[in-house]
Recover the amino acids of this structure.
C-alpha cells in the first residue's frame, strides 16, 4: 500500500473571493477515494484532539461533510474518554484520518496516553491517508516551531521535536503569517540544528508525501509557496522556493 501524508497550512483569513480551505479538504478526500479498491464513499475520521475536542470544531465538520453521500464521517474524541471503543479496528478501516490544528504539544501528549502513535503508524503503513493543518501537519514530522508552550496571546515560538517522525524532516506552517515571526524563527532553528531540515508552507499550501518523499505541493492561493530549508554546514542555511500546483 502507498503510505501517504497530506500536511497543509490552512487559510487563516480568506480574502474576499477566496475559497478558503475547502479545496484543500476536497483534495484530501480525492486522495482517500484514490486509495480505495472498491467503490463507495470515502471514510473520513476527524480527530479534533488538538483543540480539546471543541464541540464547535466538530459541528463545523458535521455541517460540511455529515450530509454528503460520498463521505462517511466519523469523529474520534478522546475527552473525557475515547468516543470509539475499538480504536485500532476503526482507524484501519478509514480512508482518511484528518487531524485538526491547535496545540501540537497537547495533541501528542494525549495521543501517547491512548497509544495513538503506534496505531497511526500502522494506519500509514496500511495506506490510510494521514492529513491535517497546523498541528495536524507538524505531528507527522519530527517537529517544528510551535507557540503551544506560550501563554495565550503570546507570539513566542519554540522548537518542538516530539512528533511522530513518520516523515524524517521538520515542518513549519503559516510561513507567511504576519502576527508571528514563524518564517525567521524556523530558519534560525534549522540553521542552528535545533530542528532538522524540512519544509515550510505558506497559508493555503499543502505537501503531499508518498512514503517519506515529497511528491507534490498544491495551493488554493495564487502566488503562495512552499520552501525547502536545510542547514548549509557553516552555521547558515539553504532554502529553495517550491511553486505549488493551483487547485
Amino acid at each position: 500500500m502507498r503510505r501517504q501524508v497530506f500536511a497543509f497550512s490552512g487559510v487563516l483569513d480568506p480574502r474576499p473571493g477566496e475559497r478558503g480551505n475547502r479545496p484543500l479538504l476536497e483534495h484530501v478526500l480525492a486522495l482517500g477515494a484514490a486509495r480505495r479498491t472498491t467503490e463507495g464513499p470515502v471514510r473520513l475520521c476527524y480527530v479534533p484532539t488538538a483543540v480539546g475536542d471543541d464541540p464547535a470544531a466538530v459541528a463545523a465538520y458535521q455541517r460540511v461533510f455529515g450530509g454528503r453521500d460520498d463521505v462517511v464521517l466519523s469523529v474520534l474524541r478522546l475527552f473525557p474518554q475515547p468516543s470509539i471503543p475499538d480504536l485500532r479496528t476503526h482507524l484501519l478501516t478509514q480512508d482518511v484520518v484528518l487531524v485538526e490544528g491547535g496545540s501540537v504539544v497537547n495533541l501528542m501528549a494525549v495521543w501517547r496516553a491512548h497509544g495513538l502513535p503506534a496505531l497511526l503508524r500502522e494506519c500509514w503503513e496500511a495506506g490510510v491517508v494521514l492529513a491535517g493543518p497546523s498541528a495536524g501537519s507538524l505531528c507527522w514530522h519530527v517537529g517544528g516551531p510551535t507557540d503551544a508552550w506560550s501563554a495565550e496571546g503570546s507570539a513566542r515560538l519554540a522548537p518542538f521535536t516530539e512528533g511522530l517522525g513518520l516523515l524524517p524532516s521538520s515542518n513549519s506552517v503559516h510561513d507567511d503569517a504576519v502576527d508571528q515571526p514563524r518564517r525567521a524563527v524556523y530558519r534560525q532553528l534549522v540553521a542552528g540544528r535545533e530542528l532538522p531540515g524540512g519544509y515550510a508552507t505558506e497559508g493555503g499550501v499543502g505537501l503531499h508525501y508518498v512514503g517519506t518523499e515529497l511528491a507534490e505541493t498544491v495551493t488554493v492561493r495564487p502566488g503562495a509557496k512552499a520552501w525547502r530549508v536545510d542547514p548549509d554546514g557553516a552555521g547558515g542555511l539553504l532554502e529553495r522556493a517550491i511553486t505549488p500546483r493551483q487547485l
In short: The chain is about 25% helix and 30% strand. The mean pLDDT is 94. The domain at 4-246 is CATH 3.40.50.880 (Rossmann fold). The radius of gyration is 17 Å.
